[in-house]
C-alpha cells in the first residue's frame, strides 16, 4: 500500500530493469525484498549488495552517497557503503543507490545479550558522530531537518497531531493529555545554544543492526543533517530502560536535555500515529510503543 500521495510504485520487475540498464554485471544476481521504511524500499541483491530506492522525491539518496564515505572513517561501527549511484530513468524518475550488504539483526530481546552494554555502545556511536568535523557542511538545503532545530517552531503541527491522536484508531486508550503536558513542559525550557553537529536523525531500533548480541552497525542515513543534538537522543525510549539509562549516563546528559529529547520523542510518535494510522501498522506500533514507554517512565 502506498504511504504517500506522490509515492512511486516499486516492484522486483522495476528493480531488475534498473539493474540491467545501469549495473549489468549484477543484474542477474538473486533479488528479494529486504524491507521498507517510511521513505525507502529495499531489495537484497545476491549475497553482498542492497538496492535502496526512495518512495518519493527528495535529496536523501544524494546526501547518503555524498557524505557516508566521508563520515565512515570517523565512526566506531560500520555504516552503509555506496557502490553505485543510480540515475533517474523514465520508469523510475529518481536517483537510487546500491550499497554493500551488512549482515545483522534488529535489536530485541532475542538478539541483544546485555541492554546496558548496548546503550553504552550506541552512546559511543553518537559521541563519535557528533564530534566528527562538519567538513564544511552547514544546516542548509538537504542537511537542514526539523529534528535538529527548535521545538517551539514545531509546536503548531505537533498540536494538530495531538488532536488527531484523540480521534484516530491507533490513539485509542492513549493518554494524549499526559503526553501534551510533557510536550508543553519542554517548551518552558531555554532553547539549546551549543554548536551544530552531525546528526543521524533516526536512531530507532530498525536502523540498528546487532551481531553476536552486540551493536554491529548503523544504517539508513536518509535523515542525515546538521543541527542541535537534542532530537538525536529521542529514540532511546524505543529501547528497554537499562539501555536508555546506560546511554544517558555514558553521554553525561543533563535533565534539560532529557526533557527536550523526550519532547522530540513525543513529537515523532504522535506525528507517526496521525500520518500513518491507516497505512503503516508496523510503524504505528513502533510509535505507540515509544509513547507508552514515555508515559510509563516520564522522569529519569
Automatic annotation (TrEMBL):
Pfam families: APH. It comes from the Bacteria. InterPro entries: AGP_Transferase, Aminoglycoside_PTrfase, Kinase-like_dom_sf. Residues 32-264 form the Aminoglycoside phosphotransferase domain. This is Phosphotransferase. It comes from Streptomyces finlayi. The lineage of its organism: Bacteria, Bacillati, Actinomycetota, Actinomycetes, Kitasatosporales.
Amino acid at each position: 500500500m502506498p504511504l504517500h500521495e506522490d509515492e512511486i510504485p516499486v516492484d522486483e520487475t522495476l528493480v531488475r530493469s534498473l539493474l540491467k540498464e545501469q549495473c549489468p554485471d549484477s543484474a542477474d544476481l538473486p533479488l528479494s525484498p529486504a524491507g521498507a521504511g517510511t521513505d525507502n524500499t529495499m531489495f537484497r541483491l545476491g549475497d553482498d549488495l542492497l538496492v535502496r530506492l526512495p518512495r518519493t522525491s527528495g535529496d536523501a539518496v544524494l546526501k547518503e552517497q555524498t557524505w557516508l564515505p566521508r563520515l565512515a572513517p570517523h565512526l566506531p561501527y560500520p555504516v552503509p557503503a555506496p557502490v553505485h549511484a543510480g540515475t533517474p530513468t523514465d520508469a523510475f524518475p529518481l536517483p537510487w543507490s546500491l550499497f554493500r550488504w551488512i549482515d545483522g539483526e534488529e535489536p530485541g530481546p532475542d538478539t541483544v545479550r546485555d541492554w546496558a552494554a548496548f546503550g553504552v555502545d550506541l552512546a559511543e556511536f553518537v559521541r563519535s558522530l557528533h564530534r566528527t568535523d562538519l567538513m564544511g557542511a552547514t544546516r542548509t538545503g538537504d542537511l537542514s531537518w526539523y529534528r535538529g532545530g527548535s521545538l517551539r517552531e514545531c509546536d503548531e503541527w505537533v498540536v494538530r497531531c495531538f488532536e488527531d491522536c484523540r480521534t484516530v484508531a491507533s490513539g485509542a486508550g492513549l493518554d494524549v493529555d499526559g503526553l501534551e503536558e510533557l510536550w508543553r513542559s519542554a517548551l518552558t525550557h531555554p532553547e539549546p545554544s551549543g554548536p551544530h553537529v552531525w546528526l543521524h536523525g533516526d536512531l530507532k531500533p530498525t536502523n540498528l543492526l546487532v551481531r553476536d548480541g552486540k551493536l554491529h552497525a548503523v544504517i539508513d542515513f536518509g535523515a542525515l543533517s546538521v543541527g542541535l543534538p537534542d532530537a538525536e537522543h529521542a529514540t532511546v525510549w524505543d529501547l528497554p530502560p537499562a539501555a536508555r539509562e546506560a546511554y544517558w549516563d555514558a553521554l553525561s546528559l543533563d535533565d534539560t536535555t532529557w526533557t527536550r529529547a523526550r519532547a522530540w520523542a513525543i513529537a515523532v510518535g504522535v506525528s507517526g500515529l496521525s500520518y500513518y494510522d491507516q497505512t503503516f501498522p508496523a510503524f504505528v506500533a513502533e510509535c505507540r510503543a515509544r509513547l507508552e514507554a514515555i508515559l510509563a517512565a516520564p522522569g529519569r
